[in-house]
UniProtKB/TrEMBL annotation:
InterPro entries: Flavoprotein-like_sf (IPR029039), FMN_Rdtase-like_dom (IPR005025), NAD(P)H-dep_reductase (IPR050712). Residues 2-151 form the NADPH-dependent FMN reductase-like domain. Pfam families: FMN_red. GO terms for molecular function: FMN binding; oxidoreductase activity. The lineage of its organism: Bacteria, Pseudomonadati, Pseudomonadota, Betaproteobacteria, Burkholderiales. This is FMN reductase. It comes from the Bacteria. SUPFAM superfamilies: Flavoproteins (SSF52218).
Amino acid sequence: MSGSSRRDSLNQKLLDIAAHGARDAGATVTSIRLADYPLPLYDGDLEADHGLPTEAGRLQLEFGRHDAFLIATPEYNGGYTAALKNALDWVSRPQPDGTSGVALFSGKVVAMVSASPGQLGGLRSQTGLRSVLDKLGLLVIPESFALGLAHQAFDGEGRLKDKNAEKAVTQVGVALGRTAGRLATR
């Protein structure tokens, strides 16, 4: 899942590369694009008056079907995006059957990648997001990648020009796939 809803998102491109690594490790990968799940801003009164929005329920179903998550987090003004936070907030709400939405996260593994035109490559957004992922009970693996100067890093086909960087991003996906596989067999 990418925290960006931009059509030509640098983070989506980076996520696609990491997802190849997860597939190489034997994982089945589902792409979740937040633009496909238009959600109102989380509001407890809205939820009380109208219930869980349909798109939030669809996202909960996706999260429930997966053992691991690969998140690309853009950096906006030193933090991760409101769209990503909003999606996590809605998914964490009680499911239609009354089951906790937090249970959709708890004990599952997650890896993060980020791309930014800045020098740090979105590292600050990863730091902020990690605290939320920890709070939701996700196990954040140590493998991650932050791509600085991302606006100059991709070729015309969406591949990284720096093959060492591409290998490192792919390895994040491989590590996530392997970790999720090991946990599933326990």
